[in-house]
């Protein structure tokens, strides 16, 4: 199926929303969806929630804050659990976004689990990355530590009705000043879903950034990088499936494997993968 819809995809810009838990990402996505629906645009939303390392389940609570869109035929919300995948998204998030685009959704919004030093995969999926931060939680310093400054195309200081919002905005601006002049300087916008503050400005800045990407050719560069990463992920899936099959075959054929050298054993399995019939039974395009 994915191979069949591939020619119908790759034209729409993907908007990524990330930030620490509790920053108000879901509420912000819901408010932005209202703006795009007012413009008669169909909106596809992929909301990723963390999966339990014990049960493997996920609450998928993001959609609770988007209930006003649940009966809107112009909005499709797909909740996903990470299923142990690192990077802030699920393994198949890119495929779901591609399906939504092929289905005719004009605005594609991706909300991640959260963001940290190991959760920056949103860069490989989104054309415009919005980082949402909160006042009074030390988010400014945490952003610098986590490498968020490098991935953000737009900064949002959400819950701007709370004390400390202006201070956090100034902190971010100061760090951006230290980074020197760049072709695109991420704007820092104060927003509040409660009183609709800053939402129109956010919509306008998103449009400006996406125009910048097209005019500068950066969108093509990003998509080439995303394509290379996608090929790597698919190869990784194939290798993992092949290894699992070969490992199971070896365990069934030989006893006392735990007494063998694990390095030599891994080499032995790898040699069997590239020569045995096993590989023929593995395919991501079935």
From TrEMBL:
UniProt keyword annotation of Ribosomal protein present: no
CDD domains attached to this UniProt entry: MMAA-like
Pfam family, one: MeaB
GO MF, one annotated term: GTP binding
AAA+ ATPase domain: residues covered: 11-213
Superkingdom classification of source: Bacteria
Keywords: Chaperone, GTP-binding, Hydrolase, Nucleotide-binding
Key word GTP-binding present: yes
SMART domains: AAA
Family: Belongs to the SIMIBI class G3E GTPase family. ArgK/MeaB subfamily.
Name by which UniProt lists this protein: Methylmalonyl Co-A mutase-associated GTPase MeaB
Origin species: Desulfitobacterium dehalogenans
Gene: meaB
């Amino acid at each position: 199926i994915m191979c069949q819809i591939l020619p119908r995809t790759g034209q729409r810009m993907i908007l990524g929303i990330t930030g620490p838990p509790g920053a108000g990402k879901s509420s912000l996505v819901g408010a932005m969806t209202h703006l795009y629906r007012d413009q008669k645009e169909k909106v596809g939303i992929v909301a990723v929630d963390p999966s339990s390392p014990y049960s493997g389940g996920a609450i998928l609570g993001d959609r609770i804050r988007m209930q006003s869109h649940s009966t809107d035929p112009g909005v499709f919300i797909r909740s996903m659990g990470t299923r142990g995948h690192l990077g802030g998204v699920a393994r198949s998030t890119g495929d779901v976004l591609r399906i939504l685009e092929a289905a005719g959704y004009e605005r594609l919004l991706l909300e991640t689990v959260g963001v940290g030093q190991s959760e920056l995969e949103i860069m490989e999926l989104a054309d415009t990355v919005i980082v949402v931060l909160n006042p009074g939680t030390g988010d400014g310093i945490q952003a610098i530590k986590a490498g968020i400054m490098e991935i953000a195309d737009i900064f949002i200081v959400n819950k701007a009705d709370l004390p400390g919002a202006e201070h956090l905005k100034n902190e971010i601006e100061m760090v951006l000043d230290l980074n020197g002049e760049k072709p695109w300087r991420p704007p820092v916008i104060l927003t509040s879903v409660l009183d609709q503050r800053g939402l129109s400005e956010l919509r306008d800045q998103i449009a400006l950034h996406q125009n910048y990407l097209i005019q500068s050719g950066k969108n093509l560069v990003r998509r080439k990088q995303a394509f290379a990463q996608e090929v790597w992920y698919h190869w990784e899936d194939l290798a993992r499936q092949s290894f699992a099959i070969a490992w199971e075959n070896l365990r069934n054929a030989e006893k006392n494997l735990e007494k063998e050298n694990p390095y030599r054993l891994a080499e032995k399995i790898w040699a069997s993968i590239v020569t045995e019939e096993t590989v023929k039974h593995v395919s991501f395009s079935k």
